[in-house]
Task: structure prediction
Amino acid sequence: MTNPRPDPAPVVVVVGNGPAALFLSYLLHGNVPFYDPATTGPHPDSHLHSLLKKYSYTPSGGPSLLDAVADLTVLDYIRSRYVSFYSVNTNPIALLVDTLIASDEARFASLACKQSRIKWVHLPDTAVPHIVFGASPAPGGQWAFSDNNSSVLHPDEKDQQSLSYAEMLSLPGYSFTEFFLTANTNQIDDYVRPCRGDISRYYAAYPHQLGLENVFQSSTVVTSVDSVINDSGERIFRVDYLHLKDPTVRLTIQTPVVVLASGVFEKPLKELRKNSIHQRPVSPGIMPTRLLPPQGVSREDLEADISSREPAVLVPQCVPSDGPSPAVLVIGSGVSAAEAVARCGQTSNVIHAFQWSNANPSPLRRLARESYPEYARILKLMKRAVKAQREALAQPTTSPHDTGLDQVAITMRQPLDDGNKPHSWYLGVANALVQSVSPCGRVTLLLPGEMGNRTITANVSKIKICTGRSGSLEYLGPSVRRLAGLRSVNADLGSISKTFLETHAREFSKDEVSDDDSLSICSNDLPDCCPPSPKPGAASSPGTSCHLRLGHGLYAIGSLTGETLVRFMLGGCMWVAHDINLNRARSKELLAI
Ligand SMILES: Cc1cc2nc3c(=O)[nH]c(=O)nc-3n(C[C@H](O)[C@H](O)[C@H](O)COP(=O)(O)OP(=O)(O)OC[C@H]3O[C@@H](n4cnc5c(N)ncnc54)[C@H](O)[C@@H]3O)c2cc1C
Result:
């Protein structure tokens, strides 16, 4: 829904309306977090408690946790003591906020268990006028399209469960559990992994519940962000955007601060260009179904599909005339692929093509078996498949086309054994190349082996490409690209993953002065966004840089900064809110002189 532009004029424009933007908006509305050692007792880490005591709420005012997320003593301590189960690179700001929300992993089981040590106080004087533009039809970002009523939702995604437990997806101020209990009469279980439709509805309800809805302009695509000089001679940002309901009308807003929250999963601008201008763009996050072309698919075509990191489902046009009954071919090594294997395995046989090396096996390895038994089951199948493949391929073969080829496949198959269809099988193939696919779904897989390559042929009823998704920063104009220090202005901004900023954006260091293309400020004035690396002088290790501030007035939050789990995005949003407030206070001081 398009809302009227809020008054007063926004100081901050946020691009993207996912969970990170929702939480930032909550903060910019003047909701301030304080350390709360009283409600459920002090944090069990007594040293952290002593460091945070000064950030407790006092009616006379004082520092809040928005200051704590920039306190280098606190962050250094967190860095030395805390680590995420998910990634060793999770930044200390994220870990600090996470441990204040729930002091250990098991506490995310339910809202009651969490025992948050954050007290939220509404301080209207700290509010910052802002506006949030997002392509999805409702707030929620990449989740928004998952509403079960959505016509663009692929049937396979209906009822798909989240990776996280409900309370890991909750945002401060209004939790998933509170939403669920309002919307449903039944209770919510501990350790529940909600379905995507419920999460979508939760994020859509969040701004309404908290009175933030006036600043959200959904179904709105930002087409360009560039820096310009305004009438007062100040450098500011010019943001061009359009509403999908009437895309012929191009709108512009000028602002001193832009926050990029556009994520790494969708490319609405590209979709807008691709689709007829009057259609609502179909989210690339939704698996589009395509018929296999009449001539089938060559290896090159399929590899292009796989490396484009766009999910897709390919469906045969006809039924194969011979051979075994079709299986589903799932391509991918991560959580989405595991999810697809588990779901498809309930009704079909599954062939799973995945990447594997001893040094770098599947990302599923990072997920604790106790928390994610279903992914542990798929990982076990994959491990067994690697072993079976190694043994099968160790047998000498005279040519890659010998007659016993499908015998190889038979020896490698395993029962899926998920209780639903006990006779369905799983055939895992590691590092296989899909050589070709016929229009009727006859697939030829090439298995590389030390004793020579082997091929396997199989009939498939569906090919699910689950090799990851990507986002886009193509909407950044040349001067903003330079400001962000994107090493090459020509860097491919059309397909970005969560490591993009880490790889391409420069670190906005203390010693750096602006170049001609940057805004006319000296960054010596600005505090570091991250604590120094453990060894003084040493370069920060990959992932320890936050990339929250890309240049003066230009910020990034959410998955764009490398933190893809909602629970680990909250700290970065708090740091950005802190920095925006700090710079506003400085500007006011300067004006008062
Ligand atoms: C299939 C899937 C399952 C996931 N499951 C989980 C999970 O269980 N738990 C978890 O913690 N995380 C999960 N994630 C990770 C995901 O990173 C987060 O859940 C979260 O959605 C990221 O939030 P965000 O605010 O960074 O961006 P997003 O949610 O990606 O939202 C950004 C929005 O900005 C929009 N946008 C982009 N460009 C423009 C533009 N030019 N103009 C206007 N709008 C624009 C995009 O269309 C998008 O809607 C999952 C991700 C995927 C893809």
Remarks:
- DSSP finds 17 helices and 21 strands in the chain.
- Residues 12-27+126-275+470-592 form a domain with the FAD/NAD(P)-binding domain fold (CATH 3.50.50.60).
- Residues 15-21, 133-136, 141-143, 162-164, 168-169, 221-222, 261-263, 265-266, 268-269, 336, 469, 475, 558-559, 564-566 surround flavin-adenine dinucleotide (CB under 6 Å).
- Residues 148-153, 276-286, 508-529, 531-545 have pLDDT under 50 and may be disordered.
